[in-house]
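Subject: Sanity check before I submit

Could someone independently write out the structure tokens for this chain? I want to compare against mine line by line before I put it in a report. The sequence has 88 residues.
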Amino acid sequence: MAAKFSDVLDGYEYATFDAGGINQAFLDKQTGKIHYHTDTGDNFEELPEDLDENDKYIEIPHKNDLNLGRNLVFDFAAQHLPDDVDYI
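---
Independent answer below. Compare away.
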């Protein structure tokens, strides 16, 4: 079963809500369901017992895991404003 984009986006926003590492979201590749977990203890559901045992699940990355920060900005500026970029 395919996951809905809106569900994956919700999982991404949940995982990215904190500074990193507190909230997690996992996609079940077979059912398309997103499982949520937080280290604060306010979990609404238990994570599946087989979460760590196989590749049935994909952890949705935190925005910092995607490395889209400073380098992306400089690459964009270099492409669109090449005369204005000064690398120090």
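---
OP: Matches mine. For the report I'm noting this point. Strands lie at 23-28, 34-38, 57-59.
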